[in-house]
Amino acid sequence: MAYRRTANVISRMRDNRSKILAAALDMVAEGGWQNAQMARVARRAGVSVGSVYRYFPSKAALFSEVLATVSTRETGVLAQIAETNAKPAFRLRRALSTFVSRALQGRRMAYAMIAEPCEPGIDATKVEWRRKLSETFLKIVEDGQRTGDFYSGDPLTATACLAGALMEPLAGPLAPTEELDEVRVRALSHEITETCMRLVCTPDAACEVEEKEQ
Amino acid sequence: MAYRRTANVISRMRDNRSKILAAALDMVAEGGWQNAQMARVARRAGVSVGSVYRYFPSKAALFSEVLATVSTRETGVLAQIAETNAKPAFRLRRALSTFVSRALQGRRMAYAMIAEPCEPGIDATKVEWRRKLSETFLKIVEDGQRTGDFYSGDPLTATACLAGALMEPLAGPLAPTEELDEVRVRALSHEITETCMRLVCTPDAACEVEEKEQ
Amino acid sequence: MAYRRTANVISRMRDNRSKILAAALDMVAEGGWQNAQMARVARRAGVSVGSVYRYFPSKAALFSEVLATVSTRETGVLAQIAETNAKPAFRLRRALSTFVSRALQGRRMAYAMIAEPCEPGIDATKVEWRRKLSETFLKIVEDGQRTGDFYSGDPLTATACLAGALMEPLAGPLAPTEELDEVRVRALSHEITETCMRLVCTPDAACEVEEKEQ
Amino acid sequence: MAYRRTANVISRMRDNRSKILAAALDMVAEGGWQNAQMARVARRAGVSVGSVYRYFPSKAALFSEVLATVSTRETGVLAQIAETNAKPAFRLRRALSTFVSRALQGRRMAYAMIAEPCEPGIDATKVEWRRKLSETFLKIVEDGQRTGDFYSGDPLTATACLAGALMEPLAGPLAPTEELDEVRVRALSHEITETCMRLVCTPDAACEVEEKEQ
DNA sequence: AATGAATGAGAATTCATTCAT
DNA sequence: AATGAATGAATTCTCATTCAT
Predict the structure, then answer these.
(1) What is chain B's percent helix, strand, coil content, to nearest 5?
(2) Model confidence over D24-73: pLDDT tens digits?
(3) In CATH, what is the architecture of C1-56?
(4) pLDDT by residue (tens digit) across C46-86?
(5) Which of C34, C78, C166, D24 could form an SS bridge with C136, CB 3.0 to 4.6 Å?
(6) CATH class for the region spanning A66-213
(7) Is the CB of A50 under 7 A from strand E?
């Protein structure tokens, strides 16, 4: 009995923690960082404000975790691509276009992650997320440098540039006010991907891949 | 007499407006957007809160102007480089490394301009600053495409990528917590510049320039 | 246990809301709309400013409710009289004199309700109060028109005129600066009532009633 | 020379005072009491803020005078009617309908004078204006009582009631949000006038007059 | 007499966090 | 463990009035 009760309590706790985190994530996904007040999160999660503070020591901690969650999800998708055995240029192109496509879907959240100002306290985690995103490209870049398909040079700088070059041209189009049709999305996606490719990939290697893709 | 009186009043007014703007700019340069409260700005400028509102209709307006001032200053420097008659690749390399160097000096301000979240009301101007920065590279990129030194493709995407690739690898090092020595600054500067070059510039054209530079 | 706890909390909440409302009402009753600052209300109610905002979304909302409370109280008294089975003229006279008497007691509040300017945000409710006051007379007037004791004509205009004719001669005497003795109060009350009677009631019907009253 | 200079100065002073007063009046006539800030008045009058304070010791003083000006203008029109030799009931009806018509033209100003909350400091003058309006009817009422056309009773109360009965039903229709067409204006005007007549005028006397008017 | 820049007290409102129950 | 009422510091913005020039 005692054991089961404990188990229930723990699982209820897990539940609450998850519910709160999910609620917070949803709010950001819908209204960005501005939407994010502790009381609202609590209400949305169906718990009290006090409970939010039981599981998260502060607002910054909660939303940092939200950011980290999304960060992990997105970099996870890219990491899978990075671990393939395909040619580095192929993997890179795939990773880049995947990032752009996913951003242009979940737009509001992507905007929050990429361009929207957030609470100063969450800031550090945002930097971390950008670092992680860079890192995701690291394996691909290193592989490419090894095969000679990619330029040599400090791979950390290269990947950071990659991340920036990927996000910056998205900032405008992701803005909540912007209207995006299917055609524009495709064009944007292609253009950004190809431009970013050049950042690390020699023209020859890049071309070769394109042929293979077809 | 009347003339001088008027002149004095006007110059005092100019003074005050400038003093307020300068104070606001200094505060951002020292403590980022977080430092930015109207009352503090007033005190620092040596005027009353009301006077701040005489010259700037709102907090957002004041700090937008701060942002615009820095933006104009920085893009101005780059624009001068862009208008040179040198080879596009040369101009580009010069512009890129100038941007990085200047950022790594005024670090706190650069961090505010590049990575730190700001008030939503100021955000619009921040977007504008990023757009202007992209635009600064536009002339160079178009020239380079014309001469064939640069890759073809949508120049607007290319310049946005350029801006992102330039700023992103700076975000980490600029963070107020980071320690930077002379050596690291140089390495960083060189590495970022060369990586960004590749985004738009064919390897041949890029090399050629390097020789010329020496 | 749990039940009692909940009950206590709820009753405490009711208490606080009431305390705040009561405090706000008292302040108006003592110093009119000028006395009405959120911080002062909070202090007087013995709660924090934040608590005031927990129960009332804005200053306008709080004081609108104050106004509505008084409005309901006063029109309630009159409505009871209106629903009597007595002759319309009798009911009307009774309602009018009751209104005047009550106003000449709670003078400061009556002044606030009748003559003192209030914040524009509260104004809508003040208009509503005047409308309600008119409406209170509506049943009596319609009954009187049916029995032929009252003049015919648009009853809505008649009741509005009635309300105005009732309040206007009170505005001066209610002014906080004015001194009122018992005699003057009586005379005023009688005079106003009888004058207002004539607005809707034919002389014959009015007289008849007077006899009955004695 | 000196004399003429003085004369000029004085006339310029008169000019300025008038200009300021006129500007203030216009502002109220256009946007009500809310529109009324000293700086705006100054700008509109084409003088400096300081000059406004040269001629009017305070905001309350300025706008009290605005109120008094309009008050005088309106009561003046009514006073002329009151001084006629026509039958009291005729004069009264004429005065009442004139008041209503004029109000339904200059609506914004009428709203400010009758229904809109104003600055507390102007309050006293507003009471005064209402008193003056009452007083305007005094001569007519006294004449009517003398001829026996009007009911007897305290004429001061009667006239105050008259003023209230006249203004109250106007408060709603004058609201800046309300739409008024020609038909409604006529109906309103007639209804209010006739209802107010009954306040002081016996039915017989009132009828007689109507015939004469035709 | 005129100017208008400067003043600064005040007022409303927000929301992360705490803690008694 | 859960609740959610209470807290109150912090911040922006307004505008009548003053006074040096």
Answers:
(1) 80, 0, 15
(2) 999 999 999 988 899 999 999 999 999 999 999 999 999 999 999 999 99
(3) Orthogonal Bundle (1.10)
(4) 999 999 999 999 999 999 999 999 999 999 999 999 999 99
(5) C78
(6) mainly alpha
(7) yes
pTM comes to: 0.88
Name residue B84's amino acid. Answer: T
* Distance between CA atoms of residues C53 and C59, nearest Å: 8
Nearest Cα residue to D117 out of C113, C19, B25, C80: C113
CA distance C49 to C28: 18
What's the topology of domain C64-213? Tetracycline Repressor; domain 2 (1.10.357)
CB D199 within 8 A of CB D158: yes
Asked if C203 is an interface residue toward chain D (Cβ–Cβ < 8 A), one would say yes
- CA distances (Å), A163 to each of A66, A132, A145, D191, in order? 20, 10, 18, 76
Chains C and A in direct contact, meaning 3 or more beta-carbon pairs closer than 8 angstroms: no
| B165 vs A162: CA distance, rounded Å | 6
Q: Which architecture does CATH list for D60-213?
A: Orthogonal Bundle (1.10)
Mention every residue, 6+ apart, whose C-beta is less than 8 A from residue D113: D67, D70, D71, D74, D126, D129
Q: Which helix (H) or strand (E) holds C86?
A: none
Cβ atoms of A213 and A90 within 8 Å: the answer is: yes
Chain D: nearest CA to C16, how far in angstroms? 30
Q: How far is CA C160 from the centre of its chain?
A: 14
B33, B19 Cβ separation under 8 angstroms = no
Asked whether D127 and C171 are in contact (CB, 8 A), the reply is: yes
Q: Domain residue spans in chain A?
A: 1-56, 66-213
Asked if the C-beta of B176 comes within 8 angstroms of chain A's C-beta atoms, the answer is no
The gap from C-alpha D150 to its chain's centroid, in whole angstroms, comes to 24
Instruction: Find all residues with CB under 8 Å of D78, minimum gap 6, and list them.
Output: D95, D98, D99, D133, D136, D137
Residues 6+ apart with CB under 8 A from D96: D162, D166, D192, D193, D196, D197
Gyration radius from chain B CA atoms: 20
